[in-house]
Amino acid sequence: MRKAKRILVAVGMALAVTLSAVPAQIVGGTQIVAHAATVKLSKKSITLDVGKTQKLKVSGTKAKVKWSSTDVSVAKVSRSGVVTAVSSGSATIKAKVGKKTLSCKVTVKEKINKLVYEDSNIRVYFTGLKKDTYPDELAACLTIENLSDNNLEINNSDSTSINDTMVDATLYQELAPHKKAYVTMFTYDDFAVGLSLNEITDIQTSLVVWNEDSSDSDYYTTEPISLLK
Q1: What is the DSSP secondary structure assignment for residue 198, as one 8-state letter?
Q2: Residue 172 belongs to a domain with what CATH number?
């Protein structure tokens, strides 16, 4: 009997210590124990297309969060937790809160709508078409890949058109060997920007490609490339 009493006393003391360590409040005469919030990240893994963004959030704390990326060439993160997909690959976004570090794996995929040109030096993908931030701009998005072992300089010629109507566009990119560039071609032509996206059936351009590693500055111009939506 005495042994049983000693056990009950020990349990009671342990319970009292536990309750005293957890904040409590009285509501309607009833004591309510408040449990400590769990600090967690809104996502453990995400998959994004190149150029897309997603905001991550840390819950369970009001402390300052320090964000970082293990590979900013694949995915970068802002001070507010907005992740931007930069290029295909994988990276880990880390959120440090005090001594605790939370992680989210980011997989970035290159969304390729159409392979439009390829030779021994370059490969060109048409990756998107959109109205830009300003209503008087139309943007065609390209991915250009250097397939060679040389440094290339790529420009567009003056034969750029939308639905067979000549428009202004500017393209200039220096590409290291076996690297990709994500290029946006802007146009401000009144006719072109007045079209709805489903009315645009064809964009054409030619590229001038310079070999920067050649002593005699070799270059060539591609045939007109048709970028169909």
Answers
A1: G
A2: 2.60.40
